C-alpha cells in the first residue's frame, strides 16, 4: 500500500491542479474568442443562396437568409421559428433586413436567374436582370441575356472607374498641390521687403505659373467630365421579386453574381475576391462596405513609428537608472513615478499629447517653418506623428521596466570580467551588458507594441479620423507625411459596430476587422519573439 501523502504534499498537488485548471480555462477562453471571430468574420465573405419567398398575403420577396431562431414567448407567433433575411434594395425599401415568420411562407424556391449586385452606393441589389441599355437603346433583354451582357462589360467599367480615380488623385491632385504651393509663395512674397522691380518680376512669374496650372486644371477637368459621361452610359434595368424596377448605372456595380447558379469553384472565386477587396481596397458607404486597407496601413505604420520612438527613450532611461545612477531618494522617486505612469488612464495621455505635441510643439513648428500656411495648421493639428509619440509616452514605462529587468539578469561577474580585461565602462555596456539584456529589451518592446496596437482612446484626439483616403506614405515628396491624419483598426471596429446606421449589415465586418487586428498583433509579436529567442540563443552562456 503506497504511503499516505503528507499535508504539505497534498497542498502542493491541490495547488498544481488549481493552477493547471486556471491555465486550461484561459486557453479555452482565448481559443473560443478566436474561433468565434474566425467563424463570424470569415463567414462574411461567403456566397449565400437567394431564396424567393411567397407569403400568405400574396407578397413576394427575394432574400438572403442570415439567421433562424425560435420566436420568443410573448411575441406573435411564439413557438414557431422566424428567419432574419437580408432583402437589400435599400434605395427602394429603406431597410436591409426583415424578420419573417416561417408560418407565413407558403412557397420557397431558389431561381437560378436571381442576381445580386454589389454597388458603390446603397448596398446590394437583389432581383432579376431585365434589360441592358446604352444611351436608352436596348443591348440585351431577358434575365440571362441581360445579365451575361452586363457582366461582360463590367471589367471595362471597373477599368474606367480606376482611370477616373487615377485622374482625380494623380494629375488633378498634382495640379491642386502645385496651385497651393504657388498660393503660399505669393503670400510669402507679399510679406518680404523687395525692390519694386524685383517684386513686379516675381509677381508676374507667379501669375504666369498660376495661369498655366489653371489652364491645365481646366483641361483635366474636361477629360474627367468626358470619362464620367461615358462611365454612366450603360445602365442595367433590374426587376425586384414584387415587380418594381430600378435602373442601375453599370459603372456603379462593383460585383454581380447569380448565387444559385454558381458551382463550388465559382463560389470559392467570389469568396477570394471579396476577401481581397476587404484587405486591399478602401472603405465606401460610410465604412460599412468595401475594404479596410487605409485602417490596416495606418495601424501598422503608427505602431512602427511608435516603436522607433519609444525604444531609445526607454532603453536609455533604463540604462541610466540601472548602470549609472547612484541611487538615493531622487532615483527611487523616479522609479515610483515610472511604475505609476503605467497605471494612468490612456485618455489622459491623449489629452497631454493634444496640449503638448499638437498645440505646443506643432504650433511652434508651424510658426517657424510654415508661417505662410497660417492660420491653416500643418503640424499644429492631429497627425500620425503626434499619435505615435503619444503612444510612445504611454508605453515607455513598460519598456523601462522590462529593460531594467533585462539589465539585472546580466550577472555581475560578466561586468567584472570585462573590466578586468581592460574594457572601459562604455565598452562593457555595449559589448557585454546590452547583448545579454537584449531579450529583456525585446520583451518590453513586444508588450509596448501589443498595447499600442489596441489603444483607441488617446488617438481620437491626436490625429485618428473615421476616413482618411490619403495614406501617410506615398510616392509624393517627402514620401512619409507625418502631419497627415490616419485611420486605425480599433476605431474602425468601434465606428462600424456602434456608429453605423445599419448595424445588422456590418456586424460580420466587425468580426472580420477584429480578427484582423488580433492577427496584426500576433504577427508583430511573433516576429519580435523569434528575434528575441534568436538573440537569447546567440548570447547564451553558463552565466547569461
Textual characterization of the structure:
With 544 residues, the protein is of the alpha+beta class. It folds into three domains: 40-114 and 258-280, Roll (SH3 type barrels); 137-252; 297-538, MetI-like fold (Orthogonal Bundle), CATH 1.10.3720. Helix content is 59%, strand content 13%. It is built from 13 helices and 13 strands. Strands 6, 7, 8, 9, 10 and 11 form a six-stranded antiparallel β-sheet that branches. Strand 6 and strand 7 form a beta hairpin. Helix 1 crosses helix 13 (503-538). The longest helix has 49 residues, at 143-191. The protein is flat and about 90 Å long. The mean pLDDT is 87.
Descriptive keywords:
6-stranded antiparallel sheet; 13 helices; alpha+beta; flat; MetI-like fold; SH3 type barrels; 544 residues
Tell the overall outline: flat
> How does CATH name the architecture of the largest domain?
Orthogonal Bundle
How big a fraction of the residues is strand? 5-15%
Return the average pLDDT rounded to an integer.
Answer: 87
**Cα gyration radius (Å):** 31 Å
CATH homologous superfamily of the largest domain, by name?
A: MetI-like
Order of helices and strands: HEEEHEEEEEHHEEEHEEHHHHHHHH
User: What distance separates the N and C termini?
Assistant: 46 Å
Largest sheet: 6 strands, antiparallel
Which parts are unreliable, with pLDDT below 50 for 5 consecutive residues or more? none
Helix content: 55-70%
CATH level-3 fold name of the largest domain: MetI-like fold
CATH class of the largest domain: Mainly Alpha
Count of alpha/pi helices: 13
Amino acid at each position: 500500500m503506497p504511503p499516505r501523502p503528507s499535508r504539505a504534499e497534498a497542498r502542493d498537488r491541490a495547488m498544481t491542479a488549481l493552477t493547471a485548471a486556471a491555465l486550461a480555462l484561459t486557453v479555452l477562453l482565448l481559443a473560443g474568442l478566436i474561433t468565434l471571430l474566425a467563424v463570424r468574420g470569415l463567414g462574411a465573405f461567403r456566397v449565400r443562396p437567394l431564396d424567393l419567398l411567397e407569403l400568405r398575403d400574396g407578397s413576394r420577396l427575394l432574400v438572403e437568409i442570415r439567421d433562424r431562431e425560435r420566436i420568443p414567448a410573448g411575441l406573435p407567433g411564439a413557438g414557431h421559428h422566424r428567419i432574419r433575411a437580408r432583402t437589400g434594395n435599400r434605395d427602394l425599401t429603406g431597410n436591409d433586413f426583415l424578420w419573417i415568420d416561417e408560418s407565413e411562407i407558403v412557397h420557397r424556391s431558389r431561381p437560378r436567374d436571381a442576381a445580386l449586385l454589389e454597388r458603390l452606393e446603397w448596398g446590394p441589389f437583389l432581383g432579376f436582370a431585365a434589360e441592358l441599355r446604352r444611351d436608352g437603346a436596348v443591348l440585351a433583354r431577358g434575365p440571362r441575356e441581360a445579365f451575361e451582357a452586363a457582366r461582360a462589360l463590367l471589367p471595362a467599367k471597373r477599368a474606367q472607374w480606376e482611370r477616373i480615380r487615377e485622374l482625380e488623385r494623380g494629375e488633378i491632385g498634382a495640379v491642386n498641390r502645385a496651385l497651393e504651393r504657388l498660393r503660399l509663395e505669393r503670400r510669402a512674397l507679399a510679406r518680404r521687403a523687395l525692390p519694386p522691380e524685383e517684386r513686379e518680376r516675381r509677381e508676374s512669374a507667379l501669375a504666369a505659373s498660376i495661369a498655366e496650372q489653371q489652364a491645365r486644371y481646366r483641361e483635366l477637368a474636361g477629360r474627367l467630365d468626358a470619362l464620367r459621361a461615358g462611365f454612366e452610359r450603360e445602365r442595367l434595368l433590374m426587376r425586384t421579386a414584387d415587380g418594381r424596377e430600378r435602373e442601375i448605372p453599370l459603372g456603379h456595380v462593383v460585383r454581380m453574381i447569380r448565387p444559385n447558379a454558381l458551382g463550388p469553384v465559382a463560389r470559392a472565386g467570389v469568396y477570394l475576391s471579396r476577401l481581397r477587396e476587404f484587405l486591399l481596397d478602401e472603405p465606401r458607404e460610410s465604412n460599412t462596405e468595401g475594404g479596410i486597407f487605409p485602417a490596416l496601413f495606418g495601424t501598422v505604420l503608427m505602431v512602427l513609428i511608435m516603436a522607433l520612438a519609444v525604444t531609445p527613450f526607454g532603453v536609455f532611461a533604463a540604462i541610466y537608472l540601472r548602470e549609472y545612477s547612484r541611487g538615493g531618494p531622487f532615483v527611487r522617486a523616479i522609479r515610483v513615478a515610472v511604475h505609476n505612469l503605467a497605471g494612468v488612464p490612456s485618455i489622459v495621455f491623449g489629452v497631454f499629447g493634444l496640449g503638448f505635441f499638437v498645440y505646443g510643439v506643432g504650433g511652434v513648428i508651424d510658426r517657424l517653418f510654415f508661417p505662410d500656411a497660417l492660420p491653416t495648421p500643418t503640424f499644429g493639428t492631429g497627425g500620425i506623428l503626434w499619435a505615435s509619440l503619444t503612444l510612445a509616452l504611454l508605453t515607455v514605462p513598460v519598456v523601462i521596466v522590462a529593460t531594467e529587468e533585462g539589465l539585472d539578469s546580466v550577472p555581475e561577474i560578466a561586468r567584472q570580467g570585462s573590466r578586468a580585461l581592460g574594457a572601459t565602462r562604455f565598452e562593457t555596456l555595449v559589448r557585454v551588458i546590452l547583448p545579454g539584456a537584449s531579450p529583456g529589451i525585446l520583451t518590453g518592446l513586444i508588450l509596448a507594441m501589443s498595447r499600442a496596437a489596441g489603444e483607441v482612446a488617446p488617438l481620437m484626439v491626436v490625429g485618428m479620423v473615421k476616413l482618411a483616403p490619403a495614406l501617410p506614405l506615398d510616392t509624393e515628396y517627402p514620401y512619409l507625411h507625418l502631419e497627415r491624419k490616419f485611420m486605425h483598426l480599433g476605431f474602425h471596429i468601434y465606428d462600424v459596430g456602434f456608429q453605423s446606421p445599419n448595424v445588422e449589415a456590418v456586424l460580420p465586418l466587425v468580426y472580420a476587422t477584429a480578427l484582423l487586428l488580433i492577427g496584426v498583433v500576433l504577427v508583430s509579436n511573433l516576429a519580435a519573439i523569434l528575434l528575441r529567442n534568436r538573440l537569447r540563443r546567440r548570447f547564451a552562456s553558463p552565466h547569461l
